[in-house]
Amino acid sequence: MPAPIYKRVLLKLSGEALMGSRDYGLDNQTVKDIAVDIKGVVELGVEVCLVVGGGNIFRGVAGASSGMDRAQADSMGMLATVMNALAMQSALERAGVATRVQSAIPMSSVCEPFIRRRAERHMEKGRVVIFAAGSGNPFFTTDTAAALRAAEMKCDALFKGTQVDGVYSADPRKNPNAERYVSLTYLDMLARDLAVMDAAAISLARENKLPIIVFNIHEPGAFTAVMQGEGKFTTVV
Ligand code: UDP
């Protein structure tokens, strides 16, 4: 079995990734499949942490566009990520993976508060740490929170699980001529406005020399394969 190419990684899971083919909420089988894939990576000896999004439940921008105060709507979005984090924790623990959820908005009867040094210790012990509630601040996204936590946790790479196996010149589900990039620079991503992660997340990754690996979260075993340098993915460096 090829050795893993990274020792410590952060995987960003969007709310959409947990939704499967539904148009709202969580799909249990999808969450379970992702948990099994994460287990495969943990079994390679890689230290893994996660940032989960909440767009399958609530997005602040949508709330604001229907008249809510933006900061208030963002708080609701962050709470949505906590629900997803708890669902992911449950699926991982059922798969036999030790986990801890840490929330950027403290809610001590549900999970731990975010404490960087404690999170690091969990990871050293082989536990998967699931970071919930994004950055804890409105006007941010969980992509940016993922780049932030990856930098704080001294991760070797930021994995972004998407619906397709990398970054394409156009949406491959709509355009059959779309080409997959094997590798891109952060500046390419910013200049071409490739809608994989927001600009704040890419800038933060760039400043911290954190490679972003974009791969298909729905292909069984893809996370493990990519971790061994196999399969299809795009590297942003
Ligand atoms: N959010 C926030 N601050 C953060 C991260 C997220 O206010 O640091 C809110 C924001 O309203 C966002 C929602 O939480 O729309 C869900 O996160 P996101 O849209 O990033 O989820 P994803 O698209 O990954 O499912």
TrEMBL record:
Q: Recount the known activity regulation.
A: Inhibited by UTP.
Q: Which Gene3D superfamilies match?
A: Acetylglutamate kinase-like
UniProt catalytic activity: UMP + ATP = UDP + ADP
Tell me if S-adenosyl-L-methionine is a UniProt keyword of this record. Answer: no
Subunit description: Homohexamer.
Mind telling me which Pfam families this protein's record contains?
AA_kinase
- Listed name of the protein: Uridylate kinase
What NCBIfam families does UniProt report for this protein, alphabetically? Answer: pyrH_bact
